[in-house]
Design brief:
single chain; about 110 residues; five-stranded mixed β-sheet; 4 helices; about 25% strand; Thioredoxin_domain; transport
Length: about 110
């Protein structure tokens, strides 16, 4: 797992994500979710590839229910791309690294 992928929760979501000066890709996930585990290596690679340009963070929906509810997370993995505190793009379900990279490139 990349050290560049940060785990955030209800308490630090606003400062880490909404107040970030760079785009932030948020992965809403859970430990029991197979597809969430499938995309984790791609997120680790993207965190390295986009280091300094995009933050990649994970929010465990089991432990951070208020953030998950606020963003209407009903199925996981659900990825939200934030820029200037606003959701710019949404991806639900497991997708490949190339598709996620396209999503990040549009935000830059």
């Amino acid at each position: 797992m990349s050290e560049k992928v940060k785990h955030v929760g209800d308490a630090d979501f606003e400062t880490t994500v909404l107040q970030s000066s760079e785009p932030v890709l948020v992965d809403f996930w859970a430990e029991w979710c197979g597809p969430c585990r499938m995309i984790a290596p791609a997120l680790d690679q993207l965190a390295d590839d986009y280091d300094g340009r995009v933050k990649i963070v994970k929010v465990n929906v089991d432990h951070n229910k208020s953030t998950a509810m606020k963003y209407h997370v009903r199925s996981i993995p659900m990825l939200l791309l934030f820029k200037d505190g606003q959701v710019q793009a949404t991806q639900i379900g497991a997708v490949g690294k190339a598709q996620l990279a396209q999503m990040l490139d549009k935000a830059l």
